[in-house]
Design a protein that fits this description.
By secondary structure, the chain is α/β, with parallel strands linked by helices. It has eleven helices and ten strands. The strands form two sheets. A six-stranded mixed beta sheet has the order 6-7-8-3-9-10, sandwiched between helices. Strands 2-1-4-5 form a four-stranded antiparallel beta sheet, covered by helices on one side. Helix 7 links the parallel strand 7 and strand 8. Helix 3 runs parallel beside helix 6 and helix 8 packs parallel to helix 11. About 4% of the residues have low confidence.
Length: 260
């Protein structure tokens, strides 16, 4: 396994937010975290990247224990976290933001220009905006920039925290297509998403988080069709891509993802 958590607990101040989490992500897998606001999804991904220290349990990446490593050390191993809310540097240009993605490798024998060319080939919308301030981009463009900045580090595991948050429906579809395309290139992805329908539709596996604990896990499409998951997280009493699935537009978008 690329990533393996065993009985991991973590939190803030005197209280744990996640409790005894077991989780795995394999190479070339999309693993989705599903749960309500406050369930512990963001705390969990922050614990993997090192933003929140683990208080108990073990975290292994590519066979190496990492729970006591710094954020920088985890990035050097290939773990890159694209945080919730994009968090681009609004006063810097698009090109400068991309350059910061390779900051930790400065001085190493890497071709930053080649990395940037590869990112721009994937995200041509950024090519004509290299000299624009990141703060002047639309929300969708900022999210693409945040992911592009992460890809500049050439990650082995890409952690995405709420990448569709605040995006228009058309851009949400494009975002999930993008995530699926990254998986097709062999990248492992840990996805924390409020949009349970769309994230489960593209996921190899999913974990349902309640009150900081894993209460259910399974293949993404199996969870998507689960009546219990549908009733609690998808806003419907039936499988969201079957009969009585809610709005016709949502059903259409899900069918597109499920056929891919």
């Amino acid at each position: 396994m690329m990533l393996e958590l065993n009985a991991v607990s973590a939190g803030y101040a005197g209280a744990d937010v996640i409790h005894g989490i077991d989780l795995t992500v394999g190479a070339g897998e999309i693993v989705t975290l599903v749960g309500a606001n406050g369930a512990g999804k963001s705390t969990l991904v922050k614990t993997v990247s090192g933003l929140v220290p683990a208080r108990a349990g073990t975290i292994a990446f590519a066979g190496q224990r990492i729970e006591n490593l710094t954020i920088a050390a985890r990035m050097h191993l290939g773990i890159v976290h694209v945080p919730e809310g994009r968090q681009v540097f609004s006063g810097l240009t698009v090109g400068e933001n991309l350059g910061l993605g390779a900051y930790l490798q400065r001085g190493a024998t890497i071709d930053v220009a080649a990395r940037r060319s590869a990112v721009l080939a994937r995200f041509p919308a950024l090519r004509d905006r290299l000299d624009a301030l990141a703060g002047n981009l639309s929300g969708g463009q900022q999210q693409i920039l945040a992911i592009g900045r992460g890809l500049m580090a050439e990650p082995k595991l890409l952690i995405l925290d709420e990448p569709s948050l605040g995006l228009a429906p058309r851009l949400v579809d494009e975002m999930f297509d993008l995530v699926r395309g990254l998986r097709a290139q062999g990248l492992a992805i840990l996805l924390s998403e409020q949009n349970a329908q769309m994230s489960l539709a593209i996921a190899d596996r999913g974990y349902v988080i309640e009150n900081g604990r894993v209460v259910l896990t399974g293949a993404g499409r199996e969870l998507l069709q689960s009546r219990g998951v549908a009733e609690r997280y998808l806003g419907t009493g039936a499988a969201p891509h079957g009969a009585g699935a809610g709005s016709g537009e949502l059903a259409r978008r899900l069918r597109v993802l499920l056929r891919a």
